[in-house]
Description:
The protein has 381 residues and is α+β, with helices and mostly antiparallel strands. The chain contains 11 helices and 12 strands. The chain folds into 2 domains: 2-199 and 373-379, Ribosomal Protein S5, domain 2; 204-370, GHMP kinase, C-terminal domain (Alpha-Beta Plaits, 2-Layer Sandwich), CATH 3.30.70.890. The strands form 2 sheets. Strands 1, 2, 3, 4, 5, 6, 7 and 12 form an 8-stranded mixed sheet that branches. Helix 3 crosses helix 4 (149-164). 41% of the residues lie in helices and 24% in strands. The model has no long low-confidence stretch (mean pLDDT 96). Strand 9 and strand 10 form a beta hairpin. The site of alpha-D-galactopyranose (GLA) has 12 residues, from helix 5.
Amino acid sequence: MKPWLIEKFRASFGRAPHWIARAPGRIEFIGNHTDYNGGPVLGAAIDRGVWVGLALRDDGQRRFASDQLSEVVALPADRMKKQAGAAAWVNYPLGVLAALPEFSLRAPAGFDYLAMSDLPVGAGLSSSAAIELASGLAFLAATAQQPSREILVKVGKHAENHFVGVPCGILDQGVSGFGKKDHLVFIDCRGPRFETVPLPGGAHFWIFNTHTKHALVDGLYAARHRECMEAAQALSVGLLVETNPAALLVAERKFSPIVFKRARHIVEEIARVSATVAALRVGDLAAVGKLLTASHRSSQMWFENSTPELDFLVTTLTSQPAVFGARLTGGGFGGAVMALTSVAFGDDEANLVAAAYAEKFGAAPDILHAQTGDGAELFTP
Ligand code: GLA
């Protein structure tokens, strides 16, 4: 990817970039909507992501190019208005620039900027966190600042929450920042505290991207966020991580039926993440797989962020002997399913699943045999 980036940067701006950064996409392994409830979550960085090339300009102009669109977006450094339409992708780097001063960091003034991606689009692999982290690393390098990795992750999340306007937790940015090949990233979102957990040998990830997306997905995410906060308030706790399944059941009459269902998913999911870490530590992939599938069923029943397409994939996948477990990955309401499999699951098995899906829904999902990869990094061109 690096040589292409340099070539495309030259084609767009007539010179080479001075800084190059890359940040990976992520798989949400388990811990569905637990992050903004203060709970734990496990994710994996993959070997695909977003690359950013940057060179400073001294005329105060910021020029943004990408490999997806032919148009270059040019903005003076003092114009920080949110962009709409085809230029909306620039809100990710702009959000990072706006977030830097919030962490007492400087933003570069004028620059030429190019983003390139080898992440499948709309697959729920968090291209937004990847572009935020790659942009953040490049902007910080260009201004000779070296904050900790944790600050970089928080800058990305701040951009998403306050500029892009999605009330997400720290999962996506945390995994993109702290990812490590052959490892999962464990985040205790209360700290936050980041750790890596070795992935037992013989574990494989397959992603089935349905390319379906609920039209109201951002609004639905925000609604789930609100319902969870309402549940915490009813229990007189700050966040749902401060309660447990038994205490929740005892307090059932304090909630509307909908809010109770949401809270049930979260508190049981929090318990599933801890059980998953324990099973990973002893290399018990069969137990891990059962927890993954249980997480999906809880999304389906209690959190209601699944869809018939995702449910069908999980059911079809889990009837295969080489599949340990499967679940929706990411926010839900469409998107992708992740399966954890043994090496015995290969292209033939994946194609059979895709064919069964195509027969039912009229179009085949995209298949990705995802490999784990390292977190965000900076390169010398
Ligand atoms: C999206 C958000 C994350 C997390 C997941 C659901 O990916 O960006 O912060 O809440 O949904 O677990």
